[in-house]
Amino acid sequence: MKAAMRSKARLISYGIQLIKRIREHLLQPGFFKFVVIGGVNTLSSTSFALCFSIFLQTNAAFVLGYLISLALAYFLNAKFVFKSKLSAKKYLMFCVSYIPNFVINNMVLLVLYNLLEFHRFIAIALAACIGLPVTYLCVKAFVFGKHDKGV
Fold it and tell me: Structurally, how many domains does the chain consist of?
C-alpha cells in the first residue's frame, strides 16, 4: 500500500514538474513571436485552402494549403523567432517537426468538417489553430534547439 502511494506521489510530482517545464517554454518571448507568425501562417494556410477548395475537395485543399504555407512558416520562424540561418537540413527537420501539427489539424478537420458539418472556413481555421503549442515545442526542440538566439 505504501509503495503504491509513493508511486502515485512520484507520478504527481513528475506531472507537476512537466507542467512547469512546458509553461516555462510557452511563456518566453520566442513563443509569442511564434504565435504571431503562426497567425500569419494560419491566415496563409487558410487562404490557400479556401482558394483551392473552390476546385478541390476540402480535405485535399487543406493539405495543399498547409504544404505551401509550411515554406513561408519556416522562413519567418528561422528569421524572426529563432534568428537562425536558412538551410535545407533545417527546412527538412522543420517539415518533420510539423507532422504532429499536421496530424492534429487533420483529425480536427475530419471531426469538425466531415462529421459535425461545421462550415469549411470555421473548420479549417480551428484546425489550423489547435496544434500551436505542440508545434512550437517540436520546432524549438528538433529544429532550432537551444543554440539559436530567439528562444
Answer: 1
